Inverse folding.
């Protein structure tokens, strides 16, 4: 039985509605990722993470995986390299809002977004609150970077600043997911982030950044990367995906099981 939303007929979806199936919507983007990674890196990670979560959850709870959103918002500064497709931030927000609203209006109550691109964090956060106002349902947003942070920090080989964009974290994941699209002979550490301060986390994945200050304006990049991909390995990538899946599965199980949510109607 397929867990992919697109494979279902409407009567099958009606059965999923009766089971209150958990919906997962992976969101990546298409943008340059240095000399050695494909432009769909974020979308590819989003899709792989979605499959990994759905496969892990399917034996326990009813789950449906929506198609990955592969285009989104990136800042103008990233268009200096070919491959960055930019959907204006408000258009992106409206599109994601409408996709989410469609499934919530269908009657699904448990929807989780997979945030797999740094520039989307703010817009997705806002959308989740707008959906509360519009649909009286609270969706969840999870990020494989945040949910693999501790495990990754314990085994990473790169120094601080080695994992912001197209560095060790992302390169390891793509080496694990689809090594055929990585050209490690082109990987270079020349654009490792050299600026550090107590207020700016050394790596975007850390989830510990205490202020908002765009990395892209702190140091120019020659190759379109910020980090050190040369030490990336498929083994590290597997550990990252396994950790993000284990932690994500634990959260999504809890998210799905909590049925006594507060609603406006209940006030
Ligand atoms: Zn990326």
């Amino acid at each position: 039985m397929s867990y992919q939303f697109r494979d279902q007929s409407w009567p099958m979806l009606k059965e999923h509605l009766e089971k209150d199936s958990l919906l997962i919507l992976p969101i990546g983007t298409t943008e340059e990722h240095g000399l050695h990674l494909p432009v769909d890196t974020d979308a590819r990670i989003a899709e792989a993470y979605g499959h990994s979560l759905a496969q892990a959850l399917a034996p326990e709870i009813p789950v449906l995986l929506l198609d990955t959103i592969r285009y989104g918002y990136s800042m103008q500064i990233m268009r200096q390299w070919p491959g960055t497709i930019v959907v204006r931030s408000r258009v992106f927000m409206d599109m994601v809002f409408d996709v989410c609203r469609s499934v919530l209006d269908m009657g699904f109550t448990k929807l989780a977004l997979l945030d797999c691109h740094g520039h989307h964090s703010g817009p997705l956060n806002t959308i989740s609150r707008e959906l509360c106002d519009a649909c009286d349902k609270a969706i969840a947003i999870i990020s494989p970077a945040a949910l693999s942070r501790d495990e990754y920090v314990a085994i990473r080989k790169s120094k601080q600043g080695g994992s912001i964009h197209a560095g060790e974290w992302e390169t390891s994941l793509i080496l694990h997911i689809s090594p055929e699209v990585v050209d490690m002979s082109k990987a270079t550490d020349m654009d490792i982030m050299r600026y550090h301060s107590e207020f700016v986390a050394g790596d975007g994945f850390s989830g510990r950044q205490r202020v908002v200050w765009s990395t892209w304006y702190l140091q120019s990049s020659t190759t379109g990367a910020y980090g050190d991909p040369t030490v990336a390995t498929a083994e590290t990538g597997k550990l990252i995906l396994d950790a993000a899946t284990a932690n994500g599965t634990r959260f999504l199980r809890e998210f799905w099981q909590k049925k006594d949510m507060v609603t406006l109607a209940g006030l």
Notes: The chain has a mean pLDDT of 94. Helices lie at 10-19, 41-57, 89-106, 121-135, 149-155, 168-177, 234-257. The chain has seven helices and six strands. Residues 33, 41-42, 165, 170 surround zinc ion (CB under 6 Å).
